[in-house]
Design a protein that fits this description.
single chain, 74% helix
Length: 100
């Protein structure tokens, strides 16, 4: 039960991070060529905040993603090596009948 809650929580965090990154990027793309209305332009302030959010999340998440990817690759390689070395070819595994 606890394991399923952790898994659900991790999926929720993943979805939230993905939505924040997607929505910030979409806002920047949509409002990239807006007309500046003065010193207190709300669109410019929002664009600056989106850039800051993407920069902060990009640097933090990229390190975690690289580490996770490397660990997954190493685990997959270890699994392949263990499987290839654990297979023994014997007469029984070849289903050879030993009749005299």
């Amino acid at each position: 039960m606890l394991k399923s809650r952790k898994r659900a929580l991790s999926w929720i965090v993943l979805v939230v991070f993905s939505l924040v990154i997607f929505c910030s990027s979409a806002f920047i793309v949509v409002h990239a060529e807006h007309e500046h209305t003065g010193e207190d332009c709300s669109v410019c302030m929002e664009l600056a905040q989106c850039h800051k959010t993407l920069h902060t999340l990009g640097t933090a998440v990229s390190g975690v993603l690289q580490l996770t990817l490397m660990l997954c690759i190493v685990a997959a390689l270890c699994k392949v090596v263990i499987r290839s070395h654990s297979e023994h070819t014997t007469l029984i595994s070849l289903k050879v009948e030993l009749l005299d």
